[in-house]
Design goal:
Blueprint: H1 7-12, E1 17-22, E2 25-39, E3 46-55, E4 63-68, E5 75-86, E6 89-96
Antiparallel strand pairs: 1-2, 1-4, 2-3, 3-6, 4-5, 5-6
Amino acid sequence: MPFLTSVEEAEALAGTVFDGRTAGGTVKLRLDTVTRLGQGLRPEGESFSLVFSAPASLAFGQGTVGLSHPDGSDETLVFVVPIGREGERALYEAVFN
């Protein structure tokens, strides 16, 4: 079953490290920031953005990443876009409208 589908669920998982399956392999992605964006087009509720970070040495381009739930039960597909670097970390954003 998909996860990270509501802002409340995302907030509860902030700080969590996920295994991210990319076209080039698997990378550890940490959910660093959850930002509420207000009511958008989502019938389920509030729009929000997620900022993930990963080791810059394993940087990858924009695209769909399969995030494995920390308990190993599920995988969610998320489209992420690189938004910069912070020290040795590459930053990626996903927006849920």
